[in-house]
Design brief:
By secondary structure, this protein is an alpha+beta fold. The protein has 2 domains: 100 residues, no CATH class; 100 residues, no CATH class. It contains 6 helices and 11 strands. The strands form 2 sheets. Strands 1, 2, 3, 4, 5, 6, 7, 8 and 9 form a 9-stranded mixed sheet that branches. Strands 10-11 form a two-stranded antiparallel ribbon. α4 links the parallel β6 and β7. α1 crosses α5 and α2 packs across α5. The chain is elongated, with a radius of gyration of 23 Å.
């Protein structure tokens, strides 16, 4: 669905509500609201809480429809040795959610063995590394590598007997920011026509959710002013 149609449908649905405020929203503010909703919508589909309360089959179909956002052909990421048996791999700038990953590691003459990356929280990792839990401790032989995510990096932890060398990931990327030509961004660059990658019926959901988001914002005038302030310069 092209962005001009998205904006038109947003205005059409907004005007069904008993509020003149929606009519007065400038285009940049409408696009800001829709873009925030797209990101929240994608988060909701891939997150723990499914806002649509749907069954597993229906939910899986929606995930399948977001295949356009899944990146699985990225070249392996080289690990950096941070010392103290900690290795880091920097995630791509467009990274949003990790879907699956594995690492290659070397020990003595055994090179590039594939290890399962097992993600833990910081607290869990502290317990594992301090207690040397035999069931969860880093193991080249059992092909298990504890990891966690922070600061747009993957942190991998070893037992000092092997070295992670490369990281392979499949991840969900940030959706593109939709835009329309005809105004100037806050950084002085002109806007341009950019359409969403999402399927049309998913964008119908986004439009409905955007209108609800707008209504909540407009009920809090102070909050609306803070969110809208400084977004763009009028052309």
């Amino acid at each position: 669905m092209d962005t001009s149609t998205v904006v038109y449908k947003y205005k059409l649905e907004s005007n069904k509500l008993d509020s003149q405020d929606f009519i007065d929203l400038p285009l940049p503010t409408i696009l800001m609201i829709i873009n925030k909703t797209i990101l929240g919508y994608v988060d909701a589909i891939y997150g723990i809480n499914n806002i649509f309360r749907q069954g597993v089959e229906s939910f899986q179909r929606r995930i399948d429809d977001l295949q356009v956002l899944i990146v699985n052909d990225l070249p392996n990421i080289t690990y950096i040795d941070e010392g103290d048996n900690i290795f880091t791999g920097t995630l791509p700038d467009n990274y949003l959610h990790l879907l699956r990953s594995y690492s290659l590691a070397t020990k003595d003459l055994c090179i590039d063995r594939a290890l399962r990356n097992i993600q833990y929280s910081h607290d869990e990792l502290n317990d594992i590394l301090i207690s040397k839990d035999p069931y969860r401790y880093p193991s080249f032989e059992w092909q298990e590598l504890p990891i966690n995510l922070a600061q747009n990096k993957i942190f991998a932890y070893t037992d000092s007997t092997f070295t992670p060398t490369e990281l392979n990931i499949q991840y969900l990327k940030y959706p593109v920011q939709i835009d329309l030509a005809g105004y100037t961004h806050i950084d002085g660059t002109p806007s341009s026509n950019v359409d969403s990658e999402l399927e049309d019926y998913l964008m119908e959901d986004v439009i409905t959710l955007s209108v609800r988001f707008s209504k909540a914002i407009l009920q809090d005038k102070e909050g609306f002013q803070l969110i809208s302030a400084g977004l763009v310069n009028p052309k």
